[in-house]
Every structure is written in structure tokens, then in C-alpha cells.
Amino acid sequence: MRRYLRLLVAQLRLSLLVAAAYRTDFVVDAVIEVLWTSTVLVPLLVVFGSRAEVAGWSFGEALVVVGFFTLLQALLEGVMNPSFVAVVEHVRRGTFDFVLLLPADALFLVSTGRFHVWRSANVLTALGILIVAFHRLGGPPSASAVALASVLFAASAVMLHAVWTMAMCSVFYAVRTDNLTDVLSAALDASRWPSTVFRGATRFALTFVVPLGLMTTVPARALLGHLDTETCAIALAEAALFALAARAMWRRALGRYASASS
Amino acid sequence: MSLARELAVVRAFLRVGTVGALTYRAEALVWLLSTTMPLIMMAFFGAVAADGAIGRYGEREIVGYFLATFIVRSLTASWISWQINLDIRAGSIASRLLLPAHPLLGYATESVGAMPVRVLGSVVVAAIMLALLGRGAVTGDPVLLGLACVSVTLAWLLSLAVSATIGALAFFVGSSAKVMDAWLAGLFVFSGYLVPLDLFPAAARPWLDWLPFRYQIGLPVELLVGALDRPRAASLMARQLAFVLAAGLTTLVVWRRGLARFSAHGG
What we know:
heterodimer; A: mainly alpha; two-stranded antiparallel ribbon; B: 13 helices; globular
């Protein structure tokens, strides 16, 4: 465990050094990230300009969901998607052999292979959104709500990583899958609103098939102190189930890899 | 070069685009799958409209608006800025300069070649739209319907010109991909892609007419769903045409000046 933590720090330091070499790019990218946040906020501002509630959520409560969405987006686009592109390059060039030969878990190595450090600006934006949200709601959340929300957000991150791993397995079956990262980002967009805005089959699919709807709404409800035990248990069980399924799929997909040197 | 030869070159480029799109079918499918935003916005505004119409949009109008947005976005999106940016940075633009046609014509016709796959996706969505909402989903005014078709073409030309101009900025800066990223953020917010423009606060609406974004997505959508009357449609289409001409001219100027700075590899 300690070895993997050291490895993570080393990989992160390498990405930081690369980012520090292009400081102007770092600032420009961070500004663009903040611009993109407006794509979530503008629809909310327009709608809540004439409505007090949407699907049972007030403006402040919906902002909490947006805060968690921005955090997950930072994770997907700052850590997972850049690593995805690195894996595609490795498999195409045949250099994936070197990853497999390293004395560490291959999935861990590819998951932490490349970071886009400027996406960390999104973490600050998310914290800003959460602060504004609770200011509007009239006060900060309780310590126990913060603790529960943190656990459930970690479960959401595990679930997102599992979905990402399943998508990454396609690299071993098809040639051009770089733009699957766009599909992942587009799919995550479904979690920018509280899950109750979706109805019928879409709601069922986003809750049980690919639980994108739960990823942001569940931690948000926990932070707001509205979460029931049953939903909490379902979210944790789904995260564990997805992680196990993704690991099994990854092992199976690795079997398809035809080494460049053989 | 004779006209017949020009046409033969264009035909060859079109074939390259179509064959490329057919060879990488999965890629085209993935692109369509990643155009989920209109559907996500439809769910959000659908939930809003369920509690009572917002502006002129009831639940039915919201579904029609965002399905039309999906169709227009599929038909008009242009990604050539990334290709041009890559070609300039990698130096492979040099080989395009040796071809017997202007490189911009090559990029444009390759985009047209990829169109059949996009049209197919759009036709499916249009069929769903008509099945869900009936004929009332699109405008009953034949003039507006005709203008919508012209406007989609102009929107595609505008997107192409903007994309080519931003791509050609790579002649001057290290990478133009970030400029495109910033443009896309503006496009999403101010084009009607995420929020119908008539729902913006009254004070902001006149400004939206003077930004180019509306003419890339919003105007064809509004024409298609009958959100505009004829005089307003004519006035906005005149502006759309002006933006297309201005963007086309800018593309040519930026391309020429940029090319003068380009030093080819292996020369």
C-alpha cells in the first residue's frame, strides 16, 4: 500500500514538473476550465431566475449537486482521460509491454500514468460553488454530513473509475478509441443535474444500469442531510460491484493484448 | 487548372472523406454518442416545464427544441481546427500544400465526405421527433422550413470557417487547440445549445444577436421549430450571411499570413 502511495506521489510530481515547464499554458488552461464551468451555471441561473424549485430542488441545493459534478469532472478530465490517451498510445505503439513488465499493478500504473494538473482549478471552482451554495442555504453542513458525503463521494469516484476501466478495455479490441474519452465526459454530463430531473426509463438506467445519476446526487443529499440509509447502502454496494466487475473485465481484456515484441 | 480538373479533385477529396468515415465507422458512432448534451438539457428543461411552461416552452416544445438542436449540431459541427492544428504542428501540412487543390478545400470536402454518417444519425433523431410529437414538431410555414434548410447550410459554413481560422492560428502560436476550447465554451452557452435564447434575461437578448454563436446552432433550430416570425427570421438570416462572409474572409487572411510564416520540413 505504502509502495503504491509513493508511486502515486512520484507520478504526480512528474506531471507537476511538466506543467511547471509550460506555466503560461497552465494559466490559460485553468482560465478555460473556469469558462467551461459557466456551461453548468448559466442554465441554472436562467431557470432559477423564474422558478424557486425544479424537481423538488432549490437553487442552493442544485448548486451542491453542481459542486460535486465539478469535482468529479476534475477527476475524470484531470486524471482518468489523460491516462486513457496514454494507454491508447502505448497499445498502438506496442510500448504497453514496458508497463506490463514493471513490478506494480498494471491497472494502477495506467490509471495514474498522466495528470493534467491545471484541472485542479476545477477543484477550487467546486469548493467555491459549495461555499456559495451553503451560504444561500443559510449555514454550513454538520461535521457528520461532511464525513458521510466524503465517503459517498469516494464511492462515486470508485464507480467512475470502474466505468472508465470498462471503457478502456475497448482499446484491446478496436483501433481508434481515443474519442471514447469524449463519450465518458458526455456520459458524466448526465450527473450535472439532480437525478430527480430524469424520469421513466432514463431515471432507471441512470440509477441502476450506469449509476451516473447517483454519483453526484447521493453525496449532495448526504451533505444536505437528506439521505436515507437505504440509498446510502445501495450506492456503496453499487460502487463495490462495479469495481469488481471492472477488474474482471480488465483481466479478460489484457488477455487480448498481442505484444509488439512477440 | 480547368474546371473539369477542379471537379475531379473535389470528387477525389469527397471520396477520401466518405471512405475515411466508413472505415472508422465506430469513431463516427462514438461521435454521435458523445452528442448527449441536448438530451441532458431536454431532461432538465422537461422537469422545469412539468411544473408549468417556461417562456413559450411547455414539455412538448422543450422536446422538439432539443431534438432539433441535436439534429442541427450533428449536421453543422466542424472539427477541422484540430486536424489543421495537428498538421501545422507536425509539419504534415507540407504534403497537403503539394496537392493540386487549396488545402482548405481539402479539409472542407473531407468534412462533407463524413456527412452521410451524420445525416443518417440526424434522420433517425428526426424520425423519433416526428413520431413523438407529430407534424407539429416542425414549423408548418413552408417559407420558414426552406429558410431553415438554407440556415443549416450557412451554419455549417460558419462553423467550418471559424474552425479553419482557429486551426490556422497554429501558424502563429504553439497550439490553437485552447482557442477552440474557449470558443466552444462560448458556443455552448450563447448559441441556444444549452438554453433556448429567448429564455435569457431581456437585457441580455439584444447582445446575443451580435455574437456569432447564435448563427452556428440557435437560428436554424428556431426556424425549424417555428419560434420566429418571417420578418425576424429574415433579419437574423441577413446577419448570419454577414457573419459567414466575414468569417470566410478572416479565414483566407489568417491562412495566407500564416502560410507565409510556415517553414516546411525537408525543404
